[in-house]
Amino acid sequence: MTKIAKLSLVVSMVLVTSTCADTLEEAFKASKVTGEIKAEYADSNFLGKASSDNVSAVGGSLGIVTGQYYGLKAGVTFQTSHLLDIDNEGSVFKDDLDAQGSVLSEAYLDYKISNTSLKVGRQYIYTPLVSTSVDGQPSESLLKDSFEAYMVTNSDLPNTTLMAGYISKYQNQTDGDGNTGEFVKDQVQDGAYTVHVKNKSIENLTLQAQYLGINGYTSGSDKDVLYFQADYVLAKHTLSAQYISSTDKSLGSTLKDGQAWGVKATGPLGLGQLGYVTAFTSSMDDGEVYAGLGKGTSDLLFTAMPVNGAGVAQRGNADTIVGGIMVPIAGVTFVPYAGKSFCNPNSINSSSLMGDVTGTGLIVIYPYNKNFFIKANYEHVTTENTYPGVLPNGYLNDKATDVAKVYLSYKF
């Protein structure tokens, strides 16, 4: 599909150049250039390793989107990452920050007619079940992941956005071997298709639903996910509910089904500028919940921890609760938080042998101005009641997982 997208772009440019050079010139003059310069330092002894891994990296992105010509526009985004220092003996960062090089992550054509648009090629996608890593969320990183896809968006129905698409390839943040990721079929296998609908017909209420199906290389590796979410704004507070049901046949008959529901509340505490967030989720089947495609789906469950995401909450038969307070002081926002996940791994066939997991942490955000900000995260995780005979009881209690990150961003 990459070849098709590139060919389509070349053909379109040739046609408009030969027939209407002045209009093409105006379209390019209307182009918008955006970019970001990033730097990140991270240190982690993930799962209680004897020593910590650490990495320092700089990078960023540069993108351009042309103006429209008869409804057609094109966009490209380059990303780059360069390691300043790395100690990755424990492979903690091999799928995240351990990347050296540059990559063309977006190269698409976007055609719009009336209330319908078709976007073809390499592109970032932001939906609950198909999502590029999201700024300000646990999936945030130096590099964004991307998709090679055909996406159709329509808004003919009042207060409703309908999106449908087919994803043929996926680009991870890294290739797992120290380089930037390439567009491959690994996660999408023989192709993935999705339908997402979002509706705001009722005042203060947003409803959305999405389905994702992945064709496995064999019928025994097919996956599908169904997701619902409702958000209601009440007197400056947002009350949310979610439900997700998934099937991952590659996990076998006893663990293929995952199912979870959750509730969340956010808003002001009524004391100065203090704010709060609290959430609860419960997974009801033996299997782990499959959240979808892309690093952004690691944020899907409401109880996703700010550093380690929702992996713990996605375990089978787990109840998870988290809470945090936003404390703004002199232009700096401090967010202390804590979470607890309860899971009794009473069988070797459980989708998790980790038992109960407790996490505490602190986020510090300093927006120097509208373009430049600094963010620091620290998260401390321990476990108890792990499955006897597989991991020592309290495996991480003496060797807790500690993760520290410092992230700088300048956008232009």
Describe it for me?
The chain starts with a helix and ends with a strand. It is built from 2 helices and 20 strands. Mean pLDDT is 89; it is low at 1-21. The protein has an 18-stranded antiparallel β-barrel. With 412 residues, it is mainly beta. The longest helix is centred in the N-terminal third of the chain and has 18 residues, at 2-19. 7% of the residues lie in helices and 51% in strands.
Outline, from the CA principal axes? globular
Helix content: under 10%
The averaged pLDDT comes out at 89
User: Proportion of β residues?
Assistant: over 45%
Query: Gap between N and C termini, in Å?
Result: 31 Å
- Compute the number of helices: 2
Structural class: mainly beta
Stretches where pLDDT falls below 50 for ≥5 residues? 1-21
Quick one: biggest sheet?
18 strands, antiparallel, barrel
List the helices and strands and how they pair.
Elements: H1 2-19, H2 21-29, E1 32-44, E2 53-65, E3 72-87, E4 99-113, E5 116-123, E6 146-154, E7 160-171, E8 178-179, E9 183-184, E10 192-199, E11 205-214, E12 223-234, E13 237-248, E14 257-268, E15 275-283, E16 319-329, E17 332-342, E18 356-367, E19 372-384, E20 401-411
Parallel strand pairs: 4-8
Antiparallel strand pairs: 1-2, 1-20, 2-3, 3-4, 4-5, 5-6, 6-7, 7-9, 7-10, 10-11, 11-12, 12-13, 13-14, 14-15, 15-16, 16-17, 17-18, 18-19, 19-20
List keywords for this structure.
412 residues, mainly beta, 18-stranded antiparallel beta barrel, 2 helices, globular, Porin, signal
Task: Briefly characterize the structure.
With 412 residues, the chain is mainly β.
